[in-house]
Amino acid sequence: MVARGYVxxxxxxxxxxxxxxxxxxxxxxxxxxxxxxxxxxxxxxxxVNAVLAWARLGPTRAVVESxxxxxxxxxxxxxxxxxxx
Length: 85
Hints:
The chain has 85 residues and is α+β, with helices and mostly antiparallel strands. Helix content is 26%, strand content 32%. It contains two helices and five strands. It has helices spanning 12-22, 45-55; strands at residues 2-6, 26-31, 37-42, 63-68, 81-84. It has a five-stranded mixed β-sheet with strand order 4-1-3-2-5. It is globular, with a radius of gyration of 12 Å.
């Protein structure tokens, strides 16, 4: 997924990590050079959809203008959810 809008500097990554960990989601989240936030989410369909629903709103100070979602095969090497620099 890629979140666009006012999503950097508003605890979007840390908040997404918390939401993901609460639902046993594996993957990562990172800031992109263009001001967007990119993430990979792996888990049950229900859990991933719940995190995506949260991601469309983000934390209180965020303004999510769009959320692009694409689906792919799981990466079996992912075992935790991390914030990447």
